[in-house]
Structure formats: C-alpha cells, structure tokens
Design goal:
The protein is α/β, with parallel strands linked by helices. 41% of the residues lie in helices and 21% in strands. A hairpin with a 5-residue loop joins strand 6 and strand 7. Helix 1 runs parallel beside helix 12, helix 6 packs across helix 7 and helix 11 crosses helix 12. It binds 3-isopropylmalic acid (IPM) and magnesium ion. Magnesium ion binds next to helix 9.
Length: 370
C-alpha cells in the first residue's frame, strides 16, 4: 500500500490532547495494515508564534501543502491576546485555508439519539438530526480587500471589511453543495442576504442558474440568512444541505453545533479543487470547536469532534468509506452506552476524561473492524 501522508497540527489549548486520541487510532489502523499513514507534526497558532514569531512557519506551510491531508486541532488562547494582528493564532488557520485553496468547508451536524437531551433544544426538535452546512471558506468578508482601520482627517477612525464574491467562487461552492445533496436527500437551501447585500443578489442568481442548468434533480430553496438562523433553532430537520458564504457559514455552523448537544461534537472538512492531473483535493480536517484554554490540561476535553474529523479524512481524502462508517458507528455506540465527557453530560451523570473517551471509541472501533 502506498504511504499516505498526514500532517498533524495540534495547535493550542486542548488541541494536543484531542489530537493524541486520533494518533492512537491511526497507530491501530497502521498496525493492523488497514492503512499506511505516514505522520509528520508541526506547530500552528500561539505555539508557533512562541517558537517562530509567526502563526505558522514557512517550513510547516510547505509541509501542509505537500501532505495528502492536514489534521488540525485548535488555535488561540488568552496568552496571545495582545500579539500583533498579523501574528494572532487564527492567522495560521486562515493562511492554511487560503494558501491551500480550501474553498469548501463541510460541517455536518448530526444529533446522536443518545445525546438529544444534551442539546439546549427539546429532544423532538433535534433527535435524529442529520444536516450538512456547506460553507464557502476562502472568499467573502474574511479575505476581501480593503480590510483596514484608517484615521480620518477629523481624527476619527474608520474600519472597513469587504464582502466580495465572484461568479466563479459562487459556482464552485454551489457545485460542491449540489453534488453532496445528490448523495443525501436531494435538497439544497442557499442562505444569503439578497435583500440587503449585492453579494447576496449575485449569490442567489448564480446558485439558481447552476441548480437549473446542472442539477435539475436537486430541489433548491433560497432562504435569507437571518431566517435560516431562526429556522435552525425552530425546526432544523427541515434542512438537508445548507449552502452559504464564509461569514454566514461561520455563524450558522455554530448554531448547527449546539443542535447536536455540544460544540465538542462537530467535525469539519475543508477541501480544495480537484488537482487537474491527479484528481486529488487538498484537504484539512478540524473540529469546529476552539482551543478551550479554560479546560486545557484538565482532561475535560471531548475528543469526539477531532476523531470524527479524522473520520471525514478517511472518507473524503482516502476513500476509506467503510472504515469511516465504522468509526462513526464506534462513536455512536460509545454514546449509546452512556459514556460522556463533561460537555455532553446531563446534571448528575458520571463523566469520563478525554483519554477514557478516546480509549472507549478505539475499543468499539476495534470490535467493529474485527
Ligand atoms: C471557525 C472559526 C474560525 C472562523 C476562526 C478561528 C478564525 O470560528 O472555523 O468557525 O471564523 O472561521
Ligand atoms: Mg466559527
């Protein structure tokens, strides 16, 4: 089997702790001969700033570009609150997204029945939920220029961020959403603010055209992004695939995460365009949650989103659909048995720590893989 290269960027806070649980799963898979992953590790975020004075070093950027997939933990923490803006921990993640061309961010929100009571919404609203948020990740207001704070003649300051999208950027993310919807329940809800924003008008027009011309078999709805936020907490099961831009996707996916019971449950995949020669996409997999500096080192972190992100790597980068499915099943079984980290426990329920949760998932996975 040809070696597949994984570049691990655990990052800050709880990142290294949750990444360690993925590494034990990789060691098991390699040991069994089911995979042949080669691992390399680098620094991103605050730890990279401490070591190199940048949120990611050029050497680690080169490794990320060369790897078959990047596994990313989390970045940031109060220690780096006052570092220069260009060096802030998040800059490392944004640079990876931009330089690897990871324009398609897939954020599934699945509510395991065993966790329906951990959500702040009623059980019947979230139980069995299975939606996918497809977020544009390399455009929009995150990267649009100008992006600046200038001092005006009267001494006042003026801050500008620029929301900008081109036809091509909208088309390619729309195709990703439509393709994924075809393999699911065949419905796309495209969320923008065409009632206020020109970029929303164009987004709406381009998505409509792609839907009509290329995906007549997929049902397309348009929804204003604010209404989408409301509908997500009112009756999220009405959605299948939600297609949206970078900023709305950031906000809507945090709502999506809470529907599933905890931010600690939500994995994500960020994919580039298929390479013209090899067909392979650059890819980065990361949990949606942050570095949780308040619980770092206490063993309270939930490794599920990180492990499920690795599951998405198995599925989307390496075509190991069967193994990915078994890893998801292992997570569901562990939850079904009532094992809980602190973030997903009900009041009075016993909890286990990060390593015990990782070990329990690995044990179930071993049993499923045989
Ligand atoms: C996310 C995060 C990032 C974002 C931050 C860390 C820059 O919130 O992945 O959702 O805003 O995209
Ligand atoms: Mg976010």
């Amino acid at each position: 089997m040809a070696k597949n290269s994984l570049f691990l960027l655990p990052g800050d806070g709880i990142g290294p702790e949750i990444m360690a649980e993925v590494e034990t799963i990789i060691a098991f898979l390699n040991g069994k001969g089911l995979t042949d992953f080669s691992l390399d590790r680098g620094l991103v975020g605050g730890c990279a700033y401490d070591a190199h004075g940048a949120a990611i070093s050029e050497a680690d950027m080169a490794k990320a570009l060369a790897a078959d997939a990047v596994l990313f933990g989390a970045v940031g923490g109060p220690k780096w609150d006052s570092v220069p803006y260009n060096c802030r921990p998040e800059a490392g993640l944004l640079r990876l997204r931009k330089d690897l061309g990871l324009f398609a961010n897939l954020r599934p929100a699945i509510c395991y029945p065993a966790l329906a009571d951990a959500s702040s919404l009623k059980r019947e609203v979230v139980e069995g939920l299975d939606i996918l948020i497809v977020r544009e990740l390399t455009g929009g207001v995150y990267f649009g220029e100008p992006k600046e704070i200038v001092t005006l003649e009267n001494g006042e300051k003026r801050a500008v961020d620029t929301q900008v999208y081109t036809t091509h950027e909208i088309e390619r993310i729309a195709r990703v959403a439509f393709d994924l919807a075809k393999a699911r329940n065949g419905r796309v809800s495209s969320a923008e603010k065409r009632n206020v924003m020109k970029s929303g008008v164009l987004w709406n027009q381009v998505v409509t055209k792609i839907g009509k011309e290329e995906y007549a078999d997929v049902k397309l709805d348009h929804i204003l992004a604010d209404n989408c936020a409301m509908q997500l907490v009112r009756w999220p099961k009405q959605f299948d695939v939600i297609l949206t831009d970078n900023l709305f996707g950031d906000v809507l996916s945090d709502i999506g995460a809470m529907l599933t019971g905890s931010l600690g449950m939500l994995p994500s995949a960020s994919l580039g365009a298929p390479d013209a020669a090899t067909g392979k996409r650059k890819a980065l997999y990361e949990p949606v949650h942050g570095s949780a500096p308040d619980i770092a080192g206490t063993g309270a972190a939930n490794p599920i989103a990180m492990i499920a992100s690795f599951g998405m790597a198995l599925r989307y980068s390496f075509g190991l659909i069967d193994l990915a499915g078994k890893l998801d099943d292992a997570i569901a079984r562990v939850l079904g048995k009532g094992l809980r980290t602190k973030d997903i426990a009900q009041k009075g329920e016993a909890t286990i720590d990060t390593r015990a949760m990782g070990a329990a998932i690995l044990a179930e996975f071993k049993a499923l893989v045989g």
